[in-house]
């Protein structure tokens, strides 16, 4: 008996395995769920009395091999945690056989070669049936990445587009992103990322075996998204000079980045920043079958010495100074992946923080996590991985000082600013889902913000934006000063407005003002201010972030008080109008109108980039 051909039943299998569209080259199935193939024989039909079939599943050129022989119908028990098979054909003498193949829910992920050995009397014939890709299976209750809610599986595994949130907690700026895991060749590129890792180069057999474990695999991927230790995907750049590559703000999806890395023989793509790192990793993890979501932490601390204190310094005129090695980013973007954690205790299973942005080393490599979100909330800094670092990102306090001639003349402590909002895209929604309570216990007594000098209570200062600033319009805000003592005061007001980058870097001052103020005993005064758009339109950056600060100084007692606000200037939306939506036909060109209004009084130039997963081949730029 000889084999004629094999049918992989691609449509049926990939529909049942929720893997449609992931690859046009290979059958893609998920572990822990059986798949079917049909064998067609030449000349002689299959005889269960005289012929036997032995299948061999090989991973990575026989580095891992498992043999199994499917019993004939009726069904016999097959171990859930071993490879196995079952002949389904009811006709015992047949030119074709349908075979059900079982994969264990803890099998290593990867590209397998399936072989068939036919034993007929004294002869044996061996056939290479072809390759299949085995993925994690969130639909399988015994897989360590099992996610029970169907709508969450649709969002966190199958959805190939999403929203990343930037800006500030009071003015979220949604940024669309095409994850693109269904783009041609992306799944194969994701597997190549694993093969290019230092772990694979050092010991490929051990690495392939360990790919059954989501914790291990997620750390490998996390380190490979940046290129600090390996032939990773992205090179980070926060200098502002992107002349040798692509500005991070120009990327609109992951597929272009992954394809560029693969085409360049695995040289790092230039450039990425936190949201790009996280979004690309999200694509890889979703493609491999691990539920993932991109998360933004607003006012994210980078605590280098572990004391949970971030220092900020201002001049007497309200200019923010770069005197500290530590920093607070307006927002920082990382990834959460869903998996069990038997290594530290099942109570810490669930969402895990993974941060591919290269900040600090973990276990000798630039990666972060998986760090259980529950461990952050409970301050379990003894657990793997990197809980102390992530805990500080959402819980550090901010020490603020006004300095004059290298001397501190005022200081205060803010215990609530860092981690003020943690959010992600909602399931089946374009709105933000607030995750803050999962990271920080809302039932704990709020930590009081305090001045480190009690005499500062004799005067209070606050700064309030009148409305969300919009590009091309004035920035209007008010400063309120309250005299809390029984004597009159002669005060001087200094206000400073600086452009800044989200990653803490301060840019030039674009507006400043000063005024004299007189306050009677226990008097309160509110002063209105406006900044004309002509003051900022020439220096406005991608994020439109502004640091606005006011310093009030008592001319007699020399007491000083600081209030500050960081906000973003909102740019106009691009309007997309699809013509004649009811008559859109597959594989036929269709028109859309894009409208952008220039909010400034001066001409602007730039690049309009249009992309759409499944709609446009690559990008259209003009």
- Would you give the CATH topology of the largest domain? Coagulation Factor XIII, Chain A, domain 2
The radius of gyration computed from the alpha-carbon positions, rounded to a whole number of angstroms, is 30 Å
Q: State the shape.
A: elongated
Class inferred from helices and paired strands:
mainly beta
Give the count of helical stretches: 11
Instruction: Based on the coordinates given, report the CATH architecture of the largest domain.
Output: Alpha-Beta Complex
- Mean of all residue-level pLDDT scores: 92
User: Which homologous superfamily in CATH is the superfamily of the largest domain?
Assistant: Transglutaminase-like
Distance between the termini: 62 Å
């Amino acid at each position: 008996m000889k084999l004629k051909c094999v049918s992989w039943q691609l449509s049926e299998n990939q529909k049942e395995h929720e893997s449609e569209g992931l690859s046009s080259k290979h059958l893609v199935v998920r572990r822990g769920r059986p798949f079917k193939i049909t064998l067609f024989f030449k000349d002689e039909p299959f005889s269960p009395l005289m012929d036997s079939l032995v299948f061999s599943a090989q991973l990575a050129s026989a580095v891992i091999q498992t043999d199994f022989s499917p019993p004939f119908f009726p069904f016999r028990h097959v171990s859930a945690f071993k490879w196995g098979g079952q002949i389904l054909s009811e006709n015992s003498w047949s030119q074709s056989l349908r075979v059900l193949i079982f994969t264990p829910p803890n099998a290593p992920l990867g590209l397998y070669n399936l072989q068939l050995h036919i034993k007929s009397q004294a002869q044996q014939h061996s056939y290479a049936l072809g390759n299949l890709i085995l993925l994690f299976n969130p639909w399988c209750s015994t897989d360590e990445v099992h996610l029970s809610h169907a709508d969450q599986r649709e969002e966190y595994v199958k959805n190939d587009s999403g929203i990343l949130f930037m800006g500030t907690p009071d003015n979220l700026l949604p940024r669309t992103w095409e994850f693109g895991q269904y783009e041609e060749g992306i799944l194969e590129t994701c597997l190549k990322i694993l093969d290019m890792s230092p772990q694979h180069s050092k010991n490929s057999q051990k690495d392939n075996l360990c790919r059954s474990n989501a914790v291990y695999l997620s750390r490998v991927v996390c380190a490979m998204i940046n290129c600090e230790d390996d032939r990773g995907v992205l090179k980070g750049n926060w200098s502002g000079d992107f002349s040798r590559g692509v500005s991070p703000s120009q990327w609109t999806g992951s597929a272009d980045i992954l394809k560029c890395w693969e085409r360049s023989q695995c040289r790092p793509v230039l450039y990425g920043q936190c949201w790009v790192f996280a979004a690309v990793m999200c694509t890889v993890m979703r493609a491999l079958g691990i539920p993932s979501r991109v998360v933004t932490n607003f006012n994210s601390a980078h605590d280098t010495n572990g004391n949970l204190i971030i220092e900020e310094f201002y001049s007497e005129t309200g200019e923010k100074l770069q005197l500290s090695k530590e920093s607070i980013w307006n927002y920082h973007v990382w990834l959460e992946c869903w998996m069990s954690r038997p290594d530290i205790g099942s109570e810490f299973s669930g969402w895990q923080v993974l941060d591919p942005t290269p900040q600090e080393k973990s276990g000798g490599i630039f990666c972060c996590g998986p760090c259980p979100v529950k461990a952050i909330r409970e301050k379990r800094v003894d657990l793997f991985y990197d809980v102390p670092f992530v805990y500080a990102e959402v819980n550090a306090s901010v020490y603020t000082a006004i300095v004059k001639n290298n001397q501190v003349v005022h200081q205060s402590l803010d215990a609530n600013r860092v981690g003020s909002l943690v959010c992600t895209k909602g399931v089946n929604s374009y709105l933000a889902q607030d995750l803050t309570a999962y990271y920080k216990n809302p039932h704990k007594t709020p930590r009081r913000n305090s001045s480190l000098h009690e005499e500062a209570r004799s005067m209070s200062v606050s700064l309030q934006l009148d409305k969300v600033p919009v590009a091309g319009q004035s920035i209007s805000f008010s400063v309120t000063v309250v005299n809390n003592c029984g004597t009159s005061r002669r005060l001087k007001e200094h206000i400073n407005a600086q452009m800044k980058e989200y990653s803490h870097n301060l840019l030039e001052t674009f507006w400043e003002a000063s005024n004299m103020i007189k306050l009677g005993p226990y008097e309160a005064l509110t002063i209105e201010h406006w900044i004309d758009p002509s003051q900022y339109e020439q220096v406005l950056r991608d994020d439109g972030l502004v640091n606005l600060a006011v310093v009030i100084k008592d001319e007699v007692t020399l007491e000083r008080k600081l209030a500050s606000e960081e906000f973003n200037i909102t740019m106009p939306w691009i309007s997309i109008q699809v013509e004649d939506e009811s008559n859109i036909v597959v594989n036929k060109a269709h028109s859309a109108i894009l409208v952008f209004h220039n909010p400034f009084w001066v001409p602007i130039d730039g690049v309009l980039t249009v992309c759409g997963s499944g709609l446009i081949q690559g990008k259209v730029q003009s």
